[in-house]
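Q: I have two molecules that I believe assemble together. Could you output structure tokens for the complex as a whole instead of separate predictions?
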Amino acid sequence: MGFYQNLDQYAKDLLKELCTIGTGNAATSLSAILKEPINIEVPALKIITPEKLPESLGGAELSRIVVFSYLSGQYPSKFLIIFSENEAKKIVNLLLHKDITGNINFNEETQLMPKSALLEIGNIIISAYVSAVGTILRTILIQSPPQIKFDILGSIIDEFCIESAETNSEILLLKNKFIEEKKEILFDIIFIPNENSITSILNTIKGKS
Amino acid sequence: MGEYQVGNEHDLLVTYGLGSCVGITIFDPLKKIGGLAHVMLPSAKISTGPNIKSGKYADTAIRELISKLIALGGDIINFEAKIFGGAKMFSFQNERSGMDIGNRNITAVKEELKKQRIPIIGKIIGEDYGRTIEFELNSGKVKVISINKPIIIV
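A: Yes, here they are, computed for all two components at once.
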């Protein structure tokens, strides 16, 4: 429990700043692909117990499309991009100029293209984010190949809760909102650095590495 | 998540989005009381740290659920269990994360139920998708709801 309580305001501000730069870079890439301006909001930093993670992402019962990728090595962390069905459909429409008819179901053959489009958008956003963070940390960060799921939010993220629950530690998450105003597309990117990663990030930025 | 609920014949116990977590229902068909646990980890033994919450672990959650049901007037001889979840939602390159925690959870749940001599009379486990569980205590039936899949009654 102690680790996150010991993070002072300065450390939290550093993490938030890092995440703003990452999101800014990601928004630029997204904007170039969608050919629409993308706004971002000031990031939110939350420290929560693992059991509270689904709730803080909107609720365990929601159906959500999640693109997930992780970093291993010196900065172990996770990245999640969470779309509602509605948002996902709007993005698919912007990219492919085609509508998904009916419900999202990635097992249907007609939805293979939309599925890869969303996965690719997720990949581009996460890569842009990660590369900006890497630049600040003066290293090259390589994220895992992204994976996409459409399922009940609680079931998608419970493995991440479990990982922290196993060591009885809390979760620090940095949440950023992307907003495309014309089509009213709104979605979150969640950056979850683990304890070791936070220590490495702070040491590197403060020049102690 | 990491908690358990109990009730009588008028109740419907629900837990949302089991992924690698495991949902365990225990039912006393004669007394019409039952309980539902949503466990995250196999055993409290492997856990370190100050605040161990018994509802999070397969072994301690099942034991507590049983004593709660007995306190409500249930008889362990009548108890029947059903288990759900324990999926593997993502694959990790180095499998460092949890080492298929879903599978480990299922094994731990089966072991503890065996130790308590409670038969498992139904299960929908494994694979790679989430499940929401609705446990109707009037009938003891469990409704399993998954996205883009037919509803299953167990």
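A: One point stands out. The CA atoms of residues 8 and 33 of chain B lie 4 Å apart.
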